[in-house]
Each structure stands twice: as structure tokens, then as C-alpha cells.
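Two quick folds needed for the group meeting slides. Do the first one here.
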Amino acid sequence: MRLFLKDGTVIEGESFGAASNAAGEVVFNTGMVGYVESLTDPSYAGQILVLTYPLVGNYGVPSKETFESQKIQIAGLVVSEYSENYSHAEAKQSLGLWLKRSGIPAMTGVDTRALTKRLREHGVLLGELVQSGKGKGFVDPNKDNLVAKVSPRKKRIYGSGRTKILAVDCGMKENIVRSLLSRGAKVVRVPWDYDFSKERYDGLLLSNGPGDPTMCAKTIENIRRAMKKGKPILGVCLGNQLLALAAGAKTYKLKYGHRAQNQPCIDTRTKRCYITSQNHGFAVDADSLPTGWEEWFVNANDGSNEGIRHKTKPWRSVQFHPEATPGPTDTAWIFDEFIASLKK
């Protein structure tokens, strides 16, 4: 099996997933654990994921109850060393078998750290995983509206709490829903382009999701209309970018993105640094924030924006994942603050 990169690099390895080809944007994640959560995260739609941790597969795959969506979302997987033998009390199958059943190709026997270094130096590259031959060519997933592909088509309601949160699902991870339900909220989950102007709710949540946020013109317009009501808003990951665009700011594509469970982010109010879980390739241009808005969090590594908030309105968002899965739960208090703002 081979991985072809658009810069001409060809990497050989052994197949351990489905006997098929896949094209997409090649990105990397530096987390030590959490491959099940990462593979089912809709934010990875259209991407070939490279895992830098040297051993993958050793704890298998658990039941669907722990997934972040109903299926594997990545286009393909590349690892250094795959372990078919697994050991975990909740494991139901091997990673390789899961990939085969899901039709997702995967390659092992690759120096993933050297590959990651290339991606860091040159930026993310388009690539293609090919079983044999030369494949069909490169595909840029960011030219498509990936959110439309992963967002649900129908409204769903969870819980029976007195506090009602309308969650715009742009590819929402399941643990966001779990986090809200565990805090006593009722969650109304709607598609990315759903017109919720006539819906009654206490707070609006803008979820994570894949691709270029500017593709979500309908969502951005719906957010602008919602802002006229003055209700509390919380954005997560892509939701941070969508809120910024609705406010009149700009976004841009990062050189190689942030995909890890150890990204340090500084709260501009308290100067306290939090270790966060992240998965995004675009960011908010903090310099373009209009009057009345300010940076909430800043990445301690590269200085990029990690959150925004309005100075007087109850509107805020973060670029990282306070719900974790995988990663630390140090910023779970953001959900607590959001729920508290709904009761004022």
C-alpha cells in the first residue's frame, strides 16, 4: 500500500484496513490515546489522519455508546505500528476489523513522526491512500460543504430539563450532548441550515464540525438573526469561527492546524493556562474582531485565537473542546458558566 502526497512524496506501508483507496487532506494528531473518539469525530470528515503515537490498536474498539458519532468519519488512517492483538475490558473488536467493516483503508509500517515533520514544515498536503497502481487523483475536501454532509437532516430532542438549549449540529460530537444533559438541560438538536428563528429556547449552542466555516452561509445568517434576540450563545470549535463570522470578523486556514490533546490556551482575563483538546484547521483572525468583541483565549504555542466573547452580551465561544473525549476536562467549567447564564 502507498500514500501519495501532492508534493510528490510516496510512502510505502502495509494495509490493515479496508481493501480500498481514499483521497483527502493529510493531517496529524499527536495524542497518545483516544483513537476511537478521534476516528468518530465528524470534524475529521474528508481527512486522512496520521497518528504520531507509535503503537495504535492495543486497546481495541469498545461499543458504540462511547463513539462521538454513529460511524468512522475519517477518509483513511496512517499509523506507525498497528497491534491486531488488543486488551481492554470494554473492547468488542480490533481496530483493523472495525476499519474493514466500515470500508476505511488504513496503512501501518510508516515513520509517522517523520511524516508529521514534513507536514509541519510544508503545511497540510492533499494525499491519496492507494492499494495498488496510481489511484484516481487528489481531492481537496475543503472545496465542499463538509458540514452539510455530516449534519443530521431532522430535529431531535434529548432530555426533559427545564432549561432548553437549541444546538446547531454542524457535525456535533456526542459528548457535547452528554455534557449538556448531565447538567440538567433539555437539548433540541437541529441541522446546520435549520431556520430556528421561530423556535423558543433559553440558549443557543453552535457545535464543532469539519471544513471551511465560510461554506456555512445559511448557519451564519441564522446566527445573525438569533443575535438580535440577545439570548446566550456558546460556540465550540467550528462554532467559534461561525460566531466570529456572524459578528463580522474573518477566518483563515492554519498552516497545519491544531489536532492534539495537549494544546495550552491562556484565558486573557485571568492569565491562567489550560491544557485543551483540539481538532481544527481554520482559526479566527483576532485582528478583525469588530467593536464590542474581545479575545477570550489565546494559544500559548503560536498566539492564534482560541476563543472570543462579547464585552456586554452573553455571547462567547472557544476554539478547543471543553467536552474533551479524547483529552483533558480542565475546561468543562465553560459548560457550567453557559448553563448558569441561561438562568439569569
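Then this one, please, same format:
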Amino acid sequence: NDSLGGGGLEGGTIQMPRTKRTAVGGAGGKRKPPAPKRYKITPIPAANAEKKHRRYRPGTKALKDIRRLQRSTELLIRKLPFARVVREICQRHFEKGAHTFRWQAAALQALQEAAEDYLVHLFEDTNLCAIHGKRVTIMIRDVRLARRLRGPMR
């Protein structure tokens, strides 16, 4: 016998090594019908059982929110707080006069849409400045650069 216990001469016969073989043809005959499918029985959750919270990878929810906001057309700033800020600025700017200014709802809405449009485009340019600086996080210097590149009152 071989000391390694492998092939060689055993009892006067030569043992051939095993090789991988693939079947060439079918065995023929009738095919068996497929076995009936077994359905997995799932227990009914209790009424007070807490639903498992879905954990998203970092950034997934942010991208989902961005896509949702890009599809929508509604205003992003709440109307009442914006109106308060507008009235406060108007009152501070014209405080020398004794009268208070009244705003039409359509005028406040037009002003809010213009303000939001300005901010959205400013942040688009700011994001491009951050990407140009090989960053994904916007910084105050990106906002300043975007405003400088836009020029006055744009």
C-alpha cells in the first residue's frame, strides 16, 4: 500500500482517479408529475405587535425626498409665517409713517412664489459650486460664490 493512502496498487488492481462527468442524454421513460406545492404557514400577528421599522441606508431617504419635492408644485414655506415676516419687514422699513400697510392675499402669494423661486435657483447654483470644489456638502462660501457669479439683483 501507498503510505499516503491515495491511489496506487491495491490488491493488484489499478484505481483510476474520479473525474467530473455530465449526463449526455435523458434517461427516457415517463416524466413524473410535479410534487404539490407546500405553502408556508405564517402566523397571524397579534393586534398589539409592533410593526418592524424599515431602516434605509444613509442618503436614500434624502434622495426620495428630493425627487418628491421636484415633482411637486406646492409652496415649501408655510404661508402664515411668511406673511408675518413680510409684514414685519414692511413695518420696519416704513416705520416713519403712521399708517400700517395692508396686503392682498394674491400679492403675498406672488411675493412668496418669487422668493421661493429665487432661493431654489440660488441653492442649485450653490450645489454646483460645492460640486466644483469636489464636495457634496454646501457651505456659506458656496452661497457667497454663487451670489457673486450671478451678479447684482439676480
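Slide caption for protein two: The longest strand covers residues 9-10.
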